[in-house]
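Build the 3D complex.
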Amino acid sequence: MSEPEQARAGRRWGVPVAEVALIAAVWISLRLAGSAPGLDVGTTDRTVPLPPEVPGFSADAWYLPDDHLLGFVEIPGGAFTMGSDPALDRLAYDIERWSPRVAQGSVDVPTFYMGRYEVTVAQYAAFVRATGRAVVEPSALAPPPDHPVSNVSWTDALAYARWLDDELARGEATPPGLRALLDEGWRVALPTEAQWEKAARGDDGRVYPWGDEPRQDRAVFGARGTAPVGTLECPECPYGLSDMSGNVWEWTRSPYQPYPYDESDDREGLDAEALWIMRGGAFNDGPQNIRAASRGGADPGARRPFIGFRVALVRSAAR
Amino acid sequence: MAARRRRSTRSGPAREPAERTVSRNALYLPLALTGLLGLLSFMPRVQGSVRLTWSFWGAIAVLLVWQAALSLRLRGAGVGRSLTTVFRKQHYVQAMVQLAVFAYWGWYWRPVYEFGGLLLAQLVFAYTVDMLVQWSRRESYVLGFGPFPIIFSINLFLWFRDDWFYLQFLMIAVGFLGKEFVRWQRDGRRVHIFNPSAFALGLFSLVLIATGTTELTWGSEIASTLTLAPFIYTHLFLLGLIVMYFFSITLVAASAAAVLFGGSALYSAWTGVPYFIDSDIPAAVFLGLHLLITDPSTSPRTPPGKMVFGALYGAGVFALYWILGSAGAPTFYDKLLCVPLLNLSVRGIDTLIHRLKASPAWDAFRVDWVFSRPNLAHMAVWVVLFGSMSALGRTDGTHPGDRLPFWIEACQEGRRNACDRLMQLEATYCGDASAWACNELGAAYAEGTITEPDAELSAAYFARACELRFQAACLNLLESDEVARASPRTLDLRLLLRAGGRNLMETPEPELLDRACMHGWGFACERMAAL
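Done.
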């Protein structure tokens, strides 16, 4: 083929080739765009570092406490006294009063299992690493691994509980005793407000988990920051749980409703702005907020350095 | 109808204005412009962002290096460079029309005015790049208003956000390089193939779509805020008449509009829902068919060719809107992506028309009008078409697709694509922080009645709604058997009722409820009655 013929052939094919290339470029762009996520749920991080080990916790079992139920403690069923009587507890808030006529009420709580400790930074990091869940507030994972995780929202706490439930059900590291419970239908969940209060104060109506007076040697409060979970022993506490007072506020699965306590999920109040109950007070609180009956309400999207959570094992489909 | 076989004598290319050589040693000019760009980098807006400042300084550094290299090369060769001035009507008229669009739109959406300094900086950068490109390849640079319509046209469709503004400079450079290097022979002249602004816009659109990074730009805001200006269609129509009068592009714009209006009407009659959700032709597309595809250098010259070109643009936008929507990509790219393809087809369209004209069949169907100025006749038809559409409420009037309850009802009635469109709208509102919309999406994915069930997406939408304090969504996260729903809250209404992007954040609640009631929100009517 002579040079002019080649040039003519090039001119003849140049435009169709360019058009096909343009269409192909659009198609490739759309194919690539199709792999983009539909909902931006924040950055995900599956490379978050995990500590090699945390004393008292099992790195092989999601950094849960190293015992036969991975830290879940049985809270026997039965009635307990909920709310505050200002005659007995001068620090009581109005919202802890059962009704205009009665200061406190009796609530029957079936048996459940409560986590001995607040969920730690290491445990939450294992969850983030496994699921790639966004850490919206990066300082959530900044403290040492045995400190309670904080700066997590109510939805983060729920997601952690759901993940742990799946992991325990599927994982080989689940001890036989715990696996038996799971096989019977027990599920990991956030505790209800009533479950939390019963686990904190038992059934004798005490003001604090250890008695009626605040004690700096029993709870982390009036401090500048969190402490490792379980730092302060509490032999007087009814079920041997740690940090039920202080360290960090703990999310519950109960929406904020005025007393008398109603276990239902308040479907009549859907027009109100969401507010969820947290319990236990935090390191930066005084004696008033760390009482067992003290109730805090928070925006479910709130991520604060003084709000964390602990999980429970409950016999219910609800998580 | 009286018709005579007569050929118009006014359809040939416009005469070139006389060139005037200003200087034979003009390299000082890009240096001065670079200095001006340097001065503009001290604007408060630029100084307010470290990345924007570096974008300016990076652009300045590239320009200086280019000038130094060019200067050394020329000094070595012992030659200079000259400057001639040619002020072409198609440049300055088009630029004035575009400026009128900016002025009117910006009056109702202030970020346009706030962007003025950056627009000026782009013009300075564009002139400098244009000069350097041309002087790198030839002796003389033709100074005129050429860069104005290119820059204005780019900025009527896409701006990068301040932190990514270096990409705006890059887009401009790509436009000018494309104009200089991507050329072909047409009608005996070596001319650029692509409309420079459309080439840059199309190329960058592809990259933004492919990388899922549209949020680096103001693209979606630009597309949705044009309608903040009342009677924007009429405004664009009137400005378009000026361009049509001077440059005989009526057939391009009118045939594109006719295809789009016609396609929308057919689709609506067939399905019972609007094709473009909240308009018969999106305002940004209406702008595009007046000011993006009407560059005489890159569109056909014959009247039939112009009609084919415009009709193809209309069909292309129509098709791309569907393709982009189906792929989950932002649909506002529809008006940009098909222009380079159309530019490439121009020679083919010209050839086709020439062949048709040469065939005996052409003579059988050919009708030559008696008008001595056929463009005026075309404009008259266009005026009638636009007037008819406006009279039918298809342009500036309220549109049924503006109202979310319309889409809810259409989805419940099972109208074609209505549920997809509803979810698309809800996804947009959810992205804007409407908790109600997020909860509705979560419910849709949980129930699986109007879309495929997806537990993970459902939980993600419920979680977003819950974090926005929507109590029903929080309850839905607790995995009850029954999906909880609630009416939109006041904040949701402020987002859901912004037809065309109007800011309702300060609107008093009774007025908001009244507007919601008019949009078909039953609960709002009940609340209004209770007030």
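Residues 27 and 310 of chain B are 41 Å apart (CA to CA).
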